[in-house]
Amino acid sequence: MSQTPPAQPSGQQTGTDCPFDIAVVGLGYVGLTLATVLAEVGFRVLGVEKRADVVNMTNQAMPHFSEIGLADALARVRDAGRLEAVVAFPQQTQASVYIITVGTPLDANGKVRLDMIEAASREVARNMQDDALVILRSTVHVGTARNVVSRILNESGKRFEIAVCPERTLEGKALLELRQLPQIVGADDQSVRERAERVFRRLTKSIVQVTTLESAEIIKLVDNTYRDLQFAFANEVARVCEAWDVNAHEVIASGKLGYERTNVALPGLVGGPCLEKDPHIFRQSAQARGIDLEITAASRLVNERQPLETVTFIVKQLQSRAIQGRVRVALLGMAFKGRPATDDLRGSMSLRVLQLLKLALPDAEIVVYDPVVALETLRSQVKDVLVAASISEAISQAHVTVIANNHPALGMQSPIALQRLMHPDAFIYDYWNHFSDLSDAELGHSYFAVGNLSGRA
After folding, report:
1. Percentage of residues of the chain with pLDDT beyond 70
2. Would I find Nucleus among this entry's keywords (predicted)?
3. Which of 171, 208, 241, 398 could staple 246 via S-S, CB 3.0–4.6 A?
4. Any residues with CB less than 8 A from the CB of 22 and at least 6 apart, and which?
5. Is the pTM of this model over 0.70?
6. Is 11 within 8 Å of 162 (Cβ atoms)?
7. Domains of the chain
8. 63: closest CA among 344, 348, 266?
9. Continuous H helices in 244-290
């Protein structure tokens, strides 16, 4: 989308030579992985991040989160002098391209926050020269690029071009997928789309152009809302199977074997920094035009309700065992997912399960463990619980072990092996059906999973 006054046909910046090719505003999960890969393919990249600790770690080639291959890649580009992180744009330092990657969390009322987008846009507006290309990569309410970012950039009086190029990678596979996934490039003008495409063509050979800013914004929201719908249906199947004392894992796995028209996901906790919010943003975008998305709303309801339903079952099981003394609960897997592995706690439904367990069992001793999240991080982020350094430490003499994410390490020992370390009258509740392929003899007498409350394999 070219803004008035009209940009020069070349689409190139004029005036002072730019010491950086690209400025990435926001060095979170999206920004740091992108900045690193852009630097790897030869761009000179400036990363702007207001958190001084993240800037210092980046300049020391130390990622502030776990991502496969990122530490080595970051070290390479830092050694090559192609990536520098700063807390604010230095004076007299501009770039040819600006990519906004800041977060868009929901506020206390469940509405998408735009303050970080607005702040980043103002920083870009102050720093850019005429004819800069500004790319919005954050996940946003439809219309944000045109009505928020463009409006702020226009107030600078400078010429610029704007495109929306959403991020669609999986945490744990970001470096690989940045080079493999099709990149959506949305802008109102063909020349702007081609200019943005030239940036991402250095990363991936697969570019998909769409003809408006809003089309690109909607695509990202559709992607994540569709995944939420799929997982919600799987959790609905699990609820029905529980009601009929049937194994949902068997129903889903058997039903789709050799039958491509049915490809139901397995049930489990649904959260994370994207799925917990993007369907809400999609629905709010529709409501802005007088439309309510009933299926989207229902899917969020199913997935957000699951922790309460399952914790209610866990508490009833504990009560039925007439446990003497203080109840000990082990909660394994605190990151929002385990495959691909991550240490990201944002939007983790494990934290919601923990919150509900603490409310329902105020006197219980609760121990948490995660195969990836650092102990010091867990201790700082998860209050009033014990933090274990190993599975065996966490489950020792536990009355219940709750397996809350799908990291492979949490399924390495059979339920019988786990129960040997637990209290004699203990049971296991598995949100991810790690063991539902096992026989009755291998499962032991007290294994329950989402969609399989009989313990029968």
Report:
1. 95
2. no
3. 241
4. 35, 38, 43, 44, 45, 46, 95, 96, 97, 98, 99, 199
5. yes
6. no
7. 20-211 (3.40.50.720), 229-449 (3.40.50.720)
8. 344
9. 248-256, 272-275, 278-287
